Each structure stands twice: as C-alpha cells, then as structure tokens.
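Run log, item B.
One chain of 137 residues. Sequence copied directly from the ordering sheet:
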Amino acid sequence: MIAEYNRPWKLFSLFLGISLLVAGSFYYQAPDWDIPISFIMAILAYLTAPWSLRVIVKRRWKRLPFMFFYAWFSVDGCYWVYWHFKNPAALDLMRDANFPASLSLYFICGLVWYYQGSLKDMLSEVKKYFSNGPGVQ
C-alpha cells in the first residue's frame, strides 16, 4: 500500500496537478483559490481518492462509511476548516460552487491513481488488452 504512494509516475502526476492548481490560483484569482488550499486538497486526494474508488469498485461495503468520510473531508471538510479560519466571507461566497468541482476532480484523481503498479506494468497490460481484444486473457 505505501509503495503505491512512492511510484514515480504517481508522484509526477501529483506534482503536475499541484502545478496546474497553483497556476490556476493566479490566473482565475477566485477568492477561495490560493496556493495552500491547492496543496492541501491535492495531497488529501492523492492519499484517499484511489482507496475511495477501490471501495466502490471492489464493493467493500463495510468500508463505505470511511470512504464517505475521507471523500467528504478531502473535498469539503478541509476546505471548510481552512477558509473558516482564513477568510469566512470567501467560504460563505464560494463553498457551494467549490463542492461539485472538487468532488468531480476527486474521483478523476481516483481514476488516474487507481492502478496499482508501475507505469511500465500498466502500459504492458493496456497493450496486451488491446492486442488480444476485450475479454481475452
């Protein structure tokens, strides 16, 4: 499990995502989009989104309450705590708009980081899948 967080391709994609979030915070200048929250939310998504998606895909229903908590905290809870102390007016203004966008990004990140293995292994499996056709092992 811990090895998955140290995979170079996953760390590179996290770095790329954070870079885009930081750039977006300068470009859009939204009242609730700054550098610290970009790091906080991206790192929480990195740590929890693939696991959350795995709970759903593999039907681990006993873990569903934890999945909902981790998803909520990564998408809205940490956002609320941060902006509650930093600028409550921005929180009141932007929270409703932030939730659907962040939830979508959370599950997109879960899809990106879902694969457990190296990039080489993933590309090999994709190549094998398309050369054999769907349903053939």
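Observations after the first pass:
- Helices lie at 2-5, 8-28, 35-57, 64-86, 88-112, 119-132.
- Residues 2-132 form one domain.
Flagged for discussion on Thursday.
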